[in-house]
Amino acid sequence: MISLPIDVAEIKGFLPPQEGEALFRLALDTAMLGPCLEIGSYCGKSTIYIGTACRRSGNILFALDHHRGSEEHQPGEEYHDPDLYDSEAEQMDSFKTFRKNLRKSGLEEHVVPIVSSSIVAAKRWATPLGMLFIDGGHSSEAALADYLSWTGHLVPGGILAIHDIFPDPADGGQAPFEIYKMAMASGLFEKRPMVGALGILRRL
Ligand code: MG
User: Fold this and answer.
1) Which residues of the chain have pLDDT under 50?
2) Burial 70-107 (b: 16+ CB within 10 A, else e)
3) What domains lie within the chain, and their CATH numbers?
4) What are the residues whose beta carbon lies below 5 Å from ligand 1 (ion)?
């Protein structure tokens, strides 16, 4: 068990403890290689696992999310949460909750929120990454854009973690699994054992 600054069970999100703890350990293991970047922070559950590892190692986590919700978070969709709906903007807004959780965790010196779409943030990105965690939109277009925009910034030895890998379509959407397979087929990565639905690859 790892010690986290707040009870992550109270944070809205879809990351089981076992997978969060795996992210924590991967972030510690790669701390010497460069900063971490996560795509899809939502309310900050994974951010707190990775950010706590960054605090321990003196590293930085870039936490990227437009905070307007993925397809499945929109009104009428399966994972819509009315608490996160900004009725004035008529859009989802998870940033306020994310920021509150980050402040309560005392991780503001170790996490840099980037409130932007992944594609826009990637346009002029030039910082090599030690770890990349992809947990953004689950449409094929979004997952592919995240993969193509960001994996090139991983340094050799760096870790690519992809959430919601379901080899059996009956268990969930296939877009994350498609980019996971694409990464393996590229010859640029070595496969590590999965942890739950977390696919883990090491950049060669
Ligand atoms: Mg996920």
Assistant:
1) none
2) beebeeeeeeeeeebbeeeeeebbbbebbbebbeebeb
3) 29-203 (3.40.50.150)
4) 14, 135, 163-164
